[in-house]
Design goal:
Layout: E1 5-9, H1 14-30, E2 35-41, H2 46-52, E3 56-60, H3 71-94, E4 98-101, H4 107-116, E5 121-125, H5 132-137, E6 143-146, E7 160-162, H6 178-185, E8 193-197, H7 204-211, H8 214-219, E9 223-227, H9 233-236, H10 240-244, E10 248-251, H11 257-263, E11 266-269, H12 273-282, E12 286-288, H13 298-307, E13 313-314, H14 323-332, H15 334-344, H16 352-364
Parallel strand pairs: 1-2, 1-4, 2-3, 4-5, 5-6, 6-7, 8-9, 8-11, 9-10, 11-12, 12-13
Helix pairs in contact: 1-16, 3-4, 6-11
């Protein structure tokens, strides 16, 4: 019997890469002999993260479109042409049964080639505001897996399947992890704890707000787990040992996010789609500080989808200095903390990867 083959294309950010790897892992779980090939953008983080997850990846020379006319505009079209030619070679050589796009630069040329060849194709849109690449592909593919309601604004309604966003498997069940989490971070499981995450690269506004209010946490006897991200960590690394003794853990990157989520009473975060999908499963009160620098301000739109359901608190980037004040106000309102935690759970989709794989398998049978 012929092995099933699947191309998964896209990337650029963790928000695209981690769902893609989750889909691949679930495919492998259900179809152990499936052949999976990733296609990403040269020089982007997927070229490192995907092989470390155990999958092959090919890179395209695709880059983002520059809206201002410049030499980069010319190189964009040159790289797009090269990417289309390379994508055609990859698709012809691998000959997949199904092509999957998760958003990001590389998924455009790959799925455009696949759909032209008549290969059944699917896109997964993580955000409440559809990205440009996925919007263009929406009319070409057979299925569009989404995580938010109301996506008929961007895609043909008959193609939409409400699946949710795939998340890391280790956060699906946090029960009973408190004690191990406290040992892991060197903290006290009985004390109130705040988790601050700004993405793998960090978020300057959030980091500055926490940096200048560190004493607020020690004064209020509240523990803090603070992921600064790579770019901001050098500024605070000399304070790591001093503040750890005061119940504050400062780290560049959190490897055991399940432990961090398990220990936290309140979480402060950006509003990327993948992060929100994780936070919904965690089911704890969240303060969202959306990044205004992403395409079409989609993090604010993601956050508002929760705020409108009373499932999160929103602080704008320019008001980030109010984060610590909001945290301690929230601690005083037990009822609000409970309702925020309960309400965000309605966005949880623990079977998202299974739902998407079910659609992939249906397409493979065509």
């Amino acid at each position: 019997m012929k092995k099933m083959k699947v191309i998964i294309s896209g990337g650029g950010t963790g928000g695209h890469i981690f769902p893609a790897v989750s889909i691949a892992n679930e495919l492998k779980r259900q179809q152990p002999d499936v052949e999976i090939l990733f296609v990403g953008a040269e020089g982007k983080m997927e070229m490192e993260k995907v092989p470390s997850a155990g999958y092959k990846i090919e890179g395209l020379p695709i880059r983002g479109f520059q809206r201002k006319l410049s030499i980069k505009t010319i190189t964009f079209f040159y790289n797009l042409l090269k990417s289309m030619m390379k994508a055609r070679r990859i698709v012809n050589s691998f000959n997949p049964d199904v092509a999957v796009g998760v958003g990001g630069y590389a998924s455009g040329p790959t799925l455009r080639v696949a759909t032209k060849k008549g290969i059944p194709s699917l896109v997964q849109e993580q955000n409440s505001y559809a990205g440009v690449t996925n919007r263009i592909l929406g009319s070409k593919v057979q299925k569009i897996c989404v995580a938010y309601e109301g996506m008929e604004t961007y895609f043909p309604a008959e193609k939409i399947v409400y699946t949710g966003n795939p998340v890391r498997q280790d956060i699906l069940d946090l029960s009973g992890k408190d004690a191990d989490a406290a040992i892991h971070f060197g903290l006290d499981a009985t004390k109130p704890t705040i988790l601050v995450i700004g993405g793998s690269l960090g978020a300057r506004a959030i980091n500055e707000a926490i940096f200048y209010h560190l004493e607020d946490f020690t004064y209020n006897n509240v523990q803090l787990i603070w992921q600064t991200g790579k770019s901001y960590f050098p500024k605070v690394k000399d304070k790591v040992d001093f503040y750890r003794k005061k119940g504050i853990v400062i780290t560049e990157f959190i490897k055991r996010m399940d432990y961090a989520y398990a220990l936290a009473n309140i979480i402060v975060s950006r509003a990327g789609a993948g992060t929100i999908s994780e936070l919904a499963l965690v089911g704890k009160p969240v303060i969202l500080v959306p990044s205004p620098y992403v395409a079409e301000d989609h993090q604010t739109k993601n956050a508002m989808a929760l705020v409108n359901k009373k499932a999160a608190v929103l602080i704008k980037e320019q008001d980030a200095d109010l984060i610590s004040k909001e945290i301690f106000q929230l601690f005083k309102d037990v009822d609000l903390m409970k309702s925020l935690g309960d309400n965000i759970k309605q966005f949880a989709r623990p079977d998202a990867a299974k739902n998407i794989v079910a659609e992939i398998l249906k397409l493979a049978k065509r």
